[in-house]
Write a structure and sequence with these properties.
Strand content of chain A: 5-15%
Strand order of the largest sheet of chain B: 1-2
Strand content of chain B: under 5%
Radius of gyration of chain A: 39 Å
Largest sheet of chain A: 6 strands, mixed
Helix content of chain A: 55-70%
Helix content of chain B: over 70%
Structural class of chain B: mainly alpha
Number of strands of chain B: 2
Distance between the termini of chain A: 112 Å
Largest interface: A-B, 51 and 44 residues
Number of strands of chain A: 14
Strand order of the largest sheet of chain A: 10-11-12-7-13-14
Shape of chain B: globular
Oligomer: heterodimer
Number of helices of chain A: 27
Shape of chain A: elongated
C-alpha cells in the first residue's frame, strides 16, 4: 500500500506541475516536458544502480533458483507477472522518455497507445515487480524511488493524453507503431526472463562450435532482426529511424547493466569494457549526439569483433541455454554487430571513407593500450586488498579483449600456444606477480585485427550495394504498379488491350512530350506537341543534336519517356507498349542485324515476332525481294552483304508486318540512287494505303518532294509544323525556309554562296 | 542441283588456285622486298609515328573504362598490384613448401622443377601469343584506321609488336615472375642441399625480359601460318570442325586410357619412394632433353658445381644469357624482315571469303512467336564456333574429370574425414567449372550491340528473348550434372538418395548462377562497347560472374563438408538430412535469383 501511496503522490505532484505549467503562457511546453522526462530518467538510473548502503540491487539470478520455472517469493503466477512488469516497465519508460525528443505522429501514438497501457499495467502490478527485484518490501531509497518513478511515468502518460487525445491516427501509423512495439518488446526482454518462465533447458543444447543450437542463435540474433528492422525502417523518416534504433539499443543497454553493480566503478578489473560491451554505451551516444569519429570507431572495430565473438563465443559450453549469461552475451553481441551496420544502411550515418578508418584506428590503438595496461597491472596485483570509502576491495585479474588469456591462441594449435608463451616480465613494486606482457601475441593480434577490420570494410560495402539496389528495385516496381493502376482507371473498365482513345484512328501524337536523360539537368526535348494522321508522309527536319532521334527512339520504345505522352493509334506508348509496337515498323539510322543469319532467316524471325501469317509473309517477302533486287543474296549470310543491302533488309524487316506507322530515321544514308528511288516508292505506296510514314532526313530535296507536311525541331523544341505546299508558296523552297527557321540569315547564306 | 554441284566444284578449284597464287605471290613479294632490303627507304622507319602508334594502341589496350586518374586511385591501384604480386609469390612459396615437406621431389630436383615450369609457361604463352598477335596484327578493328595514316609499314608493324610485347610482359609479370621468385626464395631459405641463389630474385628480371621477347618474336613468325589456317577455315569450315573434333576425341580417348591405368589400390604411403623416384627421374630427363630451356634457367639461377653447394651465377651463365640475347636479336631481324614484309599485304587482305550467290529457292519457315527466339539463338550459337566449342568442351570435360578424381579417391584408403574431404573436393570440381562456364552469359545480351536495342522496338515482353539466350546453358547442364553425379554414385561413397539430392542442388545452383549472370548483363548493358569494339570489348560483368562463381562453388563445397561431417559425428546412417539442408539452401538461392531476374527485367530492361 505504501508503494501505491508513494506512486500516487508522485503522480499527483508531477501531473499537477505539468498541467499547471502547460497552461502558463511563455512556457515552452516541449522543453518543460523534456526536462521532466530527464528528471524521471535520472530517477530511473539511480534506482536501477542503487548502491549497497541503500539496499544493494542484487543480480536477479542469485536471488532465486531460476532452474525452476516461476520461482520467486510469491506464487508462480505472481512471480511471472512481476517479471513481466519489469519487462514492460523498461519499454514503457523508454517510450515515454524519448518521445519529447522525437516528436512525430508515430512516437505520439506509441506514447499514448502503447506506453500508457504498459505503464498503467506496471502501476497495477508494482508490488509484485518490486518484490521480484528486491525480495522484500523494506522501505529503502530504492523502494521510494521506484514508487516515484512509476507515479511520474503515469503522470507523463496522463498529461500526454490530456494534451493530444484529439489526435487521429490512421491505419499506416497504427501498423507501423505496432510493428515498432514488437521490436521494442523483443529488445527489452530481461535476460533472466526466459529461464524464469521456462526453467532450465537441456544441457545438451550447446551454444558453441556451430552446433545446431548455436546456429539457431546466429540466425535469430544476427540475421533475422536486421533484415526485418531494415525492411521496416528503410522507407521511414530519418528521425523515426533514429528513434527506433535508439530505443532498441537503450533497451539492451538497460538489461545489460542490470548485471553490473554500482560499486564496480571502484574496481576497474570488473568494468564492462570488453570491446563489445562498449557498444552499448557508445551507440546511444552516437544515436543521440551523432559524434562521427566515435561512431566509426564502433563501426570498424566493434562490428567485426562482435561477429567473431558470435562465431566463437567464450561462454561456458555446459551452460544452460536459457541462462541469463547466454542471453546477455547474445543480445550484447547482436546489437554490437548489426546496429552500426543498420545505422549506415539506413543512412543515419554516411558510408565511411578512408579518413574515418584512419581515425578509428587511432581510437582502437588507444583502447588497445588501455586494456593492455589494465589487464597487465591488475593481473600483477591480483589478490591485493585495498580500502576505499570504508569498503575493502580485492584486486582480481582481467582479460579485456582476450589479451591476457590463451582463449584465442588455443584456436591456432601449438603454433598459437608457442607464440602466447613468449613473455616479458617486469617486476612491479608491491605486486605479488610480475607484470607479464606477451609482445609477440599482442602485436600479432593488433595487426591482424587492424587488417581484418580493413578487409571487412569491403564486405560491408558489398552488402550496402546489394541493399541499396534492392530498395531501388522496390521503388521502381512500386511506380510501375501505380502506373498500371492509373492506366486501368483511365480505361475505365475497358480491357488493357484496347486503345486509350478509341476514336483516334491511324494517328501519331506527341502530347507535351519531354525527355531528360539520366544525370543531366537540360532537357533533350521539351514540351513537344505533334499530330500526324493516316495517309501522310511526314518529314522531320532539324540540325544534328536537335532531338529528332530522341523523339523517334522514345516512340519506338528504345528509351523511356520522361514527361508527357506519345500515342500511336490511340494507344499510350509507355502504358501499352506491346500494342503500340505491334503497329510500328522502325528503320533505325544504322542497321543492327544478326550477321550470322541469312537475310531470309532474319526476315522470317521478324515476321514470327509480329505473327505474320505464312501467306502474307510469302507474298510480302516475294514482293520486296523482287523490288530490292535481292534474289541472289537473300539466302546468304547477312555478314556478306554490302551496306546498301543491309539497309534494304532493315527496311524489309520494318514492312514485313504492314505497320500502320512506318518510322524511318535517316533511312537513305549510304544508298545508291536506284535504292533511294525504290525506298521512296515504298514510302509513297505505304502512305497511299492509309498508313503514316514518318521519317527524318537531312536530304531536304527528297523531303520537299515526298512529304505533305514537315516539322522542324531545334534544340529540343518543335519550331513549326507546316504543309510543304504552303512553304513553297511563301518562301520559294523548303531549304530557304528551313535555314531561316534554324537561324541562318539570308545575308549569311549569300556570303557563304559567294 | 546441277548448278550447286558445279558451284561446289568451282569452289574447291578456286580454293586451290588461290593457295597456289598466294604462295607464289608471297615468294615474289618477299623476293622483291629482299632485293629492296638494303635501300635506305626500306631500312628507315619513322620514330615519331612509331611512338604515336604505340601510345595510341597502349591507351586502348591497357586503360580500363572505370579507371580514374586521381592520384589517390593511382596509388591504390599500385598498392593492389604489389599486393597481388606478393600474394602470388606467397602462394608459390606455400606450394613449394608443401612439395618439399611431403617430399614430392628430392631437394636437388627443384631446379628441374623450375625448368619444367618454365617450359610449360613458355609453351602456353607462345600459344596465347600466336593467337593474340594474329588478331592484333591482321584482324584488329583498329587496323582500318591505322592503315589510313601516312606512315611506313615498319612503324606500324613495330608498334603492334611493341604492344604485343607489353601485353605478354604484363602476363609474365602477373604469373611467371612471382611464381619463379617464390620457387627461388623457397629453395634459397629452406633447401640446404641445392639452394638457388637469393640474388637471382633481382637478376631474373633481365632474362624474363628477353624470354618474353623470344615468345613474341616466335609468335609473330608463326602468326603468318596461323593466319593462313584461319583463312582456310573460313573457306572450308569443315576443316576446323574435323581438326578440333579429332583433337577432342584424342584427348578424351587418352584421358580414359590414362584413367584406366590407375590401380584399384593406391597406397601412396608405401609406394611413395617409387613414385617420388619416378617424378624425379622424369623431371631430370625433361631438364636434360630441354636443353635451351635449361640454358635459359641456368642464366637465371646459375649452375651447380662440386666445389660449392647449390647454384651460382658464373661467367658461363652470363655467356649463356648473352647467347640467348644474341639469338633474340637475330630472331628480331628475321621477324622484322620476313613478317614486316608480309605484314601490310596480309593486314590489308580481307579474311572474308568470296561469297557464292545462289538464286533464292529456300522456303519461309513459320515459328511460334516465342520459339522463334530459341531457334535464332541456336542457329547463331552453332554458327559461332568458339561459343559452341567452349560449351561442349566444358560440359564433356567435367564428367571426365570427375571420373578421374573418383577413381583416384576410390583407390586410396581414406579415413572418414578423408572421405568427407574427397566428397567436398569432388563437389567443388563439378560446381566450379560449371558455374565458371556461365561467364559468357554476363555479356550475351550486350554482345548483340545495337541489335539488342532494336529488340526493345518489337512487340514482345523481354523475358522470352532473354530466356532464349540461356537455353544452351540450361539444357546442356543437365546431362553434364547427371553423368557426373552418376559417376559419383557408382563409386559408392555416398548413398544414392543423397547423390540424387546433391545433384539437384548442383543443378539449382547452376541455374541460379545462370540467371544471376544474365541479370548482371541487362542491368548494366555494354551494347555500345560491343558495337564499337567488336566481340573483344572488355566487360566487367563477366569478371563479376566469374568471381561469384568461385565464391559460390567454394562456399557450397564447404557446406557439403560441414553438413556431411555433422552426420558422421552424429553416427548417422545416411547423409540424407545433410542433403536436405543443402537442398533448402539451394532452393532459396535459386528462388531468389530467379525472382530477381524477372523483377529486375520488369523494372530495368526497357530503361537501360
Amino acid at each position: 500500500m505504501l508503494l501505491y501511496g508513494i506512486a500516487a503522490a508522485s503522480l499527483v505532484l508531477f501531473g499537477i506541475t505539468l498541467f499547471i505549467l502547460s497552461k502558463v503562457k511563455n512556457v515552452n511546453y516541449t522543453l518543460l516536458r523534456r526536462i521532466i522526462t530527464l528528471v524521471v530518467a535520472g530517477i530511473f538510473v539511480v534506482r536501477y544502480m542503487s548502491y549497497r548502503e541503500l539496499q544493494l540491487l542484487e543480480t536477479y539470478e542469485t536471488i532465486y533458483d531460476f532452474r525452476i520455472a516461476g520461482s520467486g517469493p510469491s506464487s508462480s503466477s505472481l512471480n511471472i507477472l512481476g517479471n513481466f512488469g519489469i519487462w514492460f516497465e523498461i519499454v514503457g519508460f523508454l517510450l515515454i522518455v524519448t518521445e519529447p525528443f522525437f516528436d512525430s505522429k508515430i512516437t505520439k501514438f506509441l506514447s499514448m497507445y502503447v506506453a500508457a497501457p504498459l505503464i498503467l499495467l506496471c502501476f497495477a502490478i508494482m508490488p509484485y515487480s518490486y518484490l521480484m527485484m528486491r525480495g522484500n518490501y523494506d522501505v529503502t531509497l530504492t523502494f521510494v524511488l521506484y514508487g516515484i518513478e512509476i507515479g511520474a511515468l503515469v503522470a507523463l502518460c496522463a498529461t500526454k493524453w490530456l494534451k493530444d487525445w484529439k489526435t487521429k491516427f490512421y491505419r499506416p501509423t497504427i501498423i507501423k507503431g505496432l510493428i515498432a512495439t514488437l521490436f521494442f518488446l523483443i529488445a527489452a526482454i530481461p535476460t533472466f526472463l526466459p529461464q524464469s518462465l521456462f526453467g532450465q533447458a537441456p544441457v545438451l543444447w550447446h551454444v558453441k562450435n556451430l552446433e545446431f543450437t548455436h546456429r539457431i542463435f546466429i540466425y535469430t540474433i544476427i540475421l533475422i532482426p536486421p533484415f526485418f528492422i531494415y525492411f521496416f525502417l528503410r522507407s521511414q523518416s530519418k528521425p523515426f529511424i533514429r528513434y527506433t534504433l535508439l530505443v532498441i539499443t537503450l533497451s539492451v543497454t538497460i538489461n545489460f547493466t542490470a548485471f553490473t553493480k554500482y560499486d564496480a566503478i571502484f574496481e576497474p578489473w570488473r568494468w564492462p569494457i570488453h570491446l563489445c560491451n562498449t557498444v552499448l554505451y557508445v551507440l546511444p551516444i552516437c544515436l543521440i549526439f551523432k559524434p562521427k569519429r566515435l561512431f566509426y570507431f564502433t563501426y570498424f572495430i566493434n562490428v567485426f569483433g562482435a561477429l567473431f565473438a558470435i562465431l566463437m563465443p567464450n561462454t561456458n559450453v555446459n551452460e544452460n541455454v536459457l541462462n541469463p549469461d547466454i542471453w546477455r552475451f547474445w543480445f550484447n553481441h547482436g546489437i554490437a554487430f548489426w546496429m552500426p551496420l543498420l545505422a549506415v544502411a539506413l543512412k543515419i550515418y554516411e558510408k565511411p571513407k578512408l579518413k574515418q578508418y584512419f581515425y578509428s584506428t587511432i581510437w582502437f590503438t588507444c583502447y588497445f593500450v588501455l586494456v593492455l595496461v589494465i589487464n597487465s597491472v591488475f593481473s600483477a596485483y591480483k589478490g591485493v586488498t585495498f580500502n576505499l570509502f570504508g569498503v575493502t576491495h580485492i584486486i582480481g585479474d582481467s582479460d579485456f579483449f582476450f589479451l591476457n588469456s590463451d582463449f584465442l591462441p588455443d584456436k591456432f594449435g601449438e603454433a598459437g600456444k608457442n607464440i602466447y608463451k613468449m613473455t616479458v616480465e617486469i617486476p612491479l613494486p608491491g605486486a605479488p606477480q610480475p607484470l607479464i606482457l606477451r609482445p609477440a601475441f599482442q602485436s600479432i593480434y593488433f595487426v591482424a585485427y587492424f587488417l581484418l577490420g580493413f578487409g571487412m570494410w569491403f564486405i560491408y560495402l558489398l552488402f550496402y550495394k546489394i541493399a541499396d539496389s534492392h530498395y531501388e528495385l522496390h521503388l521502381k516496381l512500386r511506380s510501375i504498379k501505380f502506373e498500371r493502376i492509373a492506366l486501368e482507371s483511365k480505361l475505365d473498365g475497358r480491357s488493357l488491350k484496347e486503345p486509350m482513345d478509341a476514336n483516334a484512328g491511324i494517328s501519331y501524337k506527341l502530347i507535351h512530350f519531354s525527355k531528360k536523360y539520366a544525370g543531366r539537368k537540360v532537357y533533350a526535348v521539351k514540351d513537344a506537341n505533334l499530330e500526324v494522321y493516316g495517309g501522310e508522309i511526314f518529314g522531320f527536319l532539324g540540325p544534328n543534336g536537335a532531338g529528332k532521334s530522341t523523339i523517334i527512339k522514345s516512340t519506338v520504345g528504345i528509351q523511356p519517356i520522361s514527361e508527357g505522352n506519345i500515342q500511336i493509334c490511340g494507344y499510350d506508348c509507355s502504358a501499352q507498349p506491346i500494342e503500340t509496337k505491334s503497329l510500328i515498323g522502325f528503320v533505325p539510322d544504322h542497321y543492327a542485324l544478326y550477321e550470322k543469319l541469312s537475310g531470309r532467316e532474319y526476315l522470317n524471325y521478324i515476321a514470327d515476332i509480329y505473327k505474320v501469317s505464312k501467306e502474307d509473309r510469302d507474298a510480302r517477302l516475294a514482293k520486296y525481294i523482287k523490288l530490292f533486287e535481292l534474289e541472289q543474296a537473300i539466302d546468304n549470310k547477312i555478314k556478306t552483304y554490302s551496306h546498301g543491302m543491309k539497309q534494304k533488309i532493315t527496311i524489309m524487316a520494318a514492312l514485313i508486318h504492314d505497320p500502320k506507322i512506318w518510322i524511318l530515321d535517316e533511312p537513305l544514308t549510304g544508298l545508291d540512287p536506284q535504292s533511294i528511288f525504290q525506298v521512296k516508292q515504298c514510302m509513297i505506296e505505304h502512305a497511299k494505303a492509309g498508313n503514316i510514314v514518318f521519317f527524318s532526313s537531312h536530304i531536304i530535296d527528297i523531303v520537299e518532294k515526298l512529304c505533305s507536311r514537315i516539322a522542324i525541331i531545334k534544340k529540343g523544341q518543335i519550331l513549326c509544323v507546316r504543309n510543304t505546299a504552303d512553304i513553297e508558296k511563301e518562301n520559294g523552297s523548303l531549304e530557304t525556309y528551313y535555314l531561316d527557321m534554324i537561324g541562318d540569315t539570308v545575308t549569311e547564306r549569300k556570303t557563304n554562296e559567294k | 542441283m546441277k548448278n550447286s554441284e558445279t558451284s561446289k566444284k568451282n569452289r574447291f578449284v578456286n580454293f586451290f588456285a588461290k593457295i597456289k597464287s598466294n604462295v607464289k605471290g608471297y615468294f615474289d613479294a618477299t623476293h622483291i622486298k629482299f632485293k629492296k632490303f638494303f635501300t635506305k627507304e626500306n631500312l628507315s622507319y619513322d620514330f615519331d609515328k612509331y611512338k604515336a602508334f604505340t601510345a595510341l594502341q597502349a591507351r586502348e589496350v591497357f586503360s580500363k573504362e572505370s579507371q580514374s586518374n586521381e592520384r589517390k586511385d593511382k596509388i591504390i591501384r599500385i598498392v593492389l598490384m604489389i599486393l597481388k604480386f606478393v600474394v602470388v609469390v606467397g602462394v608459390a612459396y606455400a606450394l613449394c613448401f608443401v612439395i618439399g615437406t611431403f617430399g614430392v621431389i628430392l631437394p636437388k630436383s627443384f631446379f628441374s622443377l623450375f625448368v619444367f615450369f618454365t617450359t610449360i609457361m613458355f609453351v602456353l604463352q607462345l600459344i596465347s601469343t600466336i593467337v593474340s598477335s594474329t588478331k592484333n596484327y591482321y584482324i584488329s578493328e583498329d587496323n582500318k584506321v591505322l592503315i589510313t595514316f601516312p606512315s611506313k609499314g615498319a612503324s606500324l608493324f613495330l608498334s603492334k609488336m611493341t604492344i604485343e610485347y607489353l601485353k605478354q610482359l604484363k602476363n609474365t609479370v602477373d604469373f611467371y615472375l612471382p611464381v619463379s621468385i617464390g620457387i627461388i626464395i623457397y629453395t634459397a631459405l629452406t633447401n640446404p642441399l641445392s639452394p638457388l641463389p637469393l640474388y637471382s630474385v633481382v637478376w631474373i628480371v633481365f632474362p624474363v625480359i628477353v624470354m618474353v621477347a623470344i615468345i613474341v618474336l616466335l609468335g609473330s613468325l608463326i602468326s603468318v601460318l596461323y593466319l593462313q589456317y584461319l583463312r582456310l577455315v573460313k573457306i572450308v569450315p569443315a576443316v576446323r570442325l574435323v581438326l578440333v573434333g579429332a583433337i577432342f576425341a584424342l584427348i578424351i580417348y587418352g584421358a580414359v586410357l590414362l584413367i584406366g591405368l590407375i590401380p584399384p589400390d593406391l597406397n601412396l604411403l608405401n609406394t611413395w619412394n617409387t613414385i617420388r623416384a619416378n617424378i624425379d627421374s622424369f623431371l631430370n630427363t625433361f631438364s636434360n632433353v630441354m636443353v635451351p630451356v635449361s640454358w635459359f634457367c641456368n642464366s637465371i639461377v646459375g649452375v651447380t658445381s662440386p666445389s660449392y653447394k647449390g647454384y651460382r651465377l658464373n661467367g658461363a651463365c652470363f655467356g649463356k644469357f648473352f647467347a640467348v640475347l644474341g639469338c633474340t636479336i637475330v630472331l628480331f631481324f628475321i621477324v622484322f624482315f620476313v613478317v614486316k614484309a608480309l605484314f601490310l599485304h596480309m593486314m590489308t587482305k580481307s579474311v572474308d571469303y568470296e561469297k557464292v550467290n545462289e538464286k533464292a529457292h529456300h522456303r519461309n519457315h513459320v515459328h511460334h512467336k516465342h520459339s522463334t527466339f530459341a531457334f535464332k539463338e541456336l542457329k547463331i550459337s552453332f554458327r559461332t564456333f568458339e561459343v559452341s566449342a567452349t560449351y561442349i568442351v566444358t560440359y564433356v570435360l567435367i564428367p571426365l574429370l570427375i571420373y578421374l578424381i573418383c577413381k583416384i579417391f576410390d583407390a586410396i584408403n581414406t579415413s572418414m574425414k578423408g572421405n568427407m574431404l574427397s566428397i567436398m573436393f569432388i563437389v567443388l570440381l563439378i560446381v566450379l567449372p560449371l558455374l565458371a562456364s556461365n561467364a559468357p552469359l554476363a555479356s550475351a545480351y550486350s554482345r548483340e550491340g545495337h541489335a539488342g536495342y532494336i529488340k526493345k522496338t518489337k512487340p514482345i515482353q523481354p523475358t522470352t528473348p532473354m530466356l532464349s539466350k540461356l537455353l544452351f546453358n540450361l539444357i546442356l547442364s543437365i546431362p553434364s550434372i547427371f553423368v557426373s553425379m552418376y559417376i559419383v554414385g557408382i563409386f559408392g561413397k555416398i548413398d544414392i538418395g543423397t547423390v540424387i539430392i546433391v545433384g539437384v542442388c548442383v543443378l539449382l545452383l547452376q541455374y541460379a548462377h545462370i540467371f544471376y549472370s544474365s541479370t548482371l548483363d541487362f542491368v548494366n548493358p555494354k551494347n555500345e562497347n560491343y558495337q564499337i569494339e567488336g566481340q573483344n570489348a572488355k566487360n566487367s560483368n563477366e569478371n563479376i560472374s566469374t568471381v561469384v562463381a568461385f565464391v559460390i562453388s567454394f562456399l557450397f563445397a564447404f557446406l557439403v563438408f560441414f553438413f556431411f561431417q555433422e552426420q558422421v559425428l552424429a553416427h548417422a546412417e545416411t547423409f540424407l538430412p545433410a542433403a536436405i539442408r543443402l537442398l533448402i539452401i539451394c532452393i532459396l538461392t535459386f528462388g531468389s535469383c530467379l525472382l530477381l531476374y524477372f523483377l529486375k527485367m520488369k523494372a530495368y530492361f526497357m530503361e537501360k
